[in-house]
Amino acid sequence: MKASSLAAFVTLTMFSGGLGGGLSSAGCSSSDSPDSHATPDAGNTNDHAPALTSTGEVVAGKTGTLFGAQIASFARVAKVDGNEVVHSVGVIVPLAAFTSAPASHPYQDDVVLEMPDIAVEQTIVHHLRANWLPSGHGPTPYGEAHFDLHFLRGTIDAIDSIQCRANKSKPAADKLPEGYGPPELCVDGSGDHSWPLADKAAGAKFSASLIMGYWAGNVVFIEPMITKSRLMQKQTFEMAIPKPASAGGERTLYPTHMTARFDEANESYTFEFDQLEPID
Description:
Blueprint: H1 3-15, E1 57-66, E2 69-80, E3 83-94, H2 95-99, E4 111-114, H3 117-122, E5 127-133, E6 146-152, H4 156-160, E7 185-187, E8 191-194, E9 208-215, E10 218-227, H5 228-231, E11 237-240, E12 252-263, E13 268-279
């Protein structure tokens, strides 16, 4: 499918029923190779945003492919004192992307998707890297099959270049939100991972958790980690996003809430980050 046709296709499927509408799994990706980043080319940017909604104008971002299903990024933008300000940012993922995940699969970036430019300029959410782990990973209780949805701050090249052995700096206390301990795991290409302390308690159960990510001591990602079984329930759910006193780097907007909204008519989830607050 040509880029111009794809953009028109996304416009129709994404917004015909409002933002909650899903994307068709038809269409094409920039790469069908599981070992490559499914990063769309510039022609897959949708420049035709719909009219104003109750929470502002919807700005469409890029599209990519996750296990044969087309996903898309977006932002909601509202006018504040004459200026465009991001109200929320997120992605739309068809249920087929989750149901089609293979039973056996290596750890890798299964899709890399950039957010709209205005979200990159104003918020800490710059791009998504999704990872499917059919056997889960440590520590307990994360052994169930689940998806890691890393929403990262930084360019794709900058995150790709992260090598854990190159920088052993850990976040200071003001970078750790309440209920989180020092990072215990570093992964090349993403950074240091800090788990909720509650998940480490004896008998803790896991269906959806929010992981905090760091590199060189600064916040570099927010990661909803969600079991496949939870997603197969086809129900809307919400997650609070803990906010540290500081993220490091330039002042930006930080989401404190995420809704995973299931659209029954379109068989899709919209993962939307909102309740944005300034952070240094």
